[in-house]
Every structure is written in structure tokens, then in C-alpha cells.
């Protein structure tokens, strides 16, 4: 395969799927008040979150791993990879740019049809164009799965939060793209 195509495929794979097991349920029509309250809590979390240089570890669809530091503020994401080598992802609004220093390349990707775009709103709104397909709650853990309302086949994002004393802290993200490729990102200390 041509080296440039490998890079573009890797960049696409990095973005197309970004976040535990995907919970593609039947949607939340008629959801209980408790589930609606949990969805509202997650919206509030994304309106106020300010992750600055948080360590992350990522597993790509082929099983390889990497990691570095992540910064996320409403509408803006920056991932600086130190492993497997220097790379970075900058995303805001409807666009992302993936830069691979080792390959001396840059890939621009639109987020309108990419699962990562579900988390790039400012504010993040989990209704209307976004459907919450499933909410799962266990002691100390809250998990939500999201998809695009108008085209769920474009991917699924599953967010897992630590939920302690009614405070949320993002723990992991799993993104499944339309080809069922999965990327898993953990924000927990390794």
C-alpha cells in the first residue's frame, strides 16, 4: 500500500472512531426521568469541563497503542501524542487536523459525518441532531452512548464517567465508525 494512503487511513481511523462496549440500543424515547437527569448532567459536564494536559492512552483498531496528553474545552480538542511517536490532533467546530511529525504529513478531516463531531459542539447538546441510544448506571459509573439522529450508521460514541458524590469525571471514550472500526481512549491513570 502507498505510504500516503497508510497515513490518511491511520488519520481517518484515529478520528472516525474515538471511545467500553458500544451500547447501541433503541434510543431514549420515553426514557425515565432518572435517565433524562443523567443526560442533563453529562451536558452540564461538557459545558464546564476543562481538561488541560490530562494523560491518555489510546488503542487503535489494529491493537496498537499510543498515548500522550489531551486538552479538551467546550468546542475544542487537542491531543498531543508522544507514543508511538510525535503526532497531534487539533479539532474544533466542524474540522480536525491530524499531523504526523515522523511522516511529515498533515491530514484535514471534516467532522460533520464523523463520530468525533458529536463532542465538538459548543455547547454539547445531547438531543435534536444527537440521539442518546443508551444510558447505563452502576455504582460509581455512568455510561452513555451517542449517535447522529439523522444517520446512526455514521458511528457510535460511548462515554464512561466516574460518578462519585454526584460529580462526573470522564474516564474513557470508545468510538465505533461506520465500518465498525473501534478506537478506545482511556483517561484513567495507567
Automatic annotation (TrEMBL):
PROSITE patterns: PROKAR_LIPOPROTEIN
Listed name of the protein: Outer membrane lipoprotein carrier protein LolA
InterPro entries registered for this protein in UniProt: LolA/LolB/LppX, OM_lipoprot_carrier_LolA-like
Pfam families: LolA
Lineage: Bacteria, Pseudomonadati, Pseudomonadota, Alphaproteobacteria, Acetobacterales
Keywords: Signal
Signal peptide bounds: 1-21
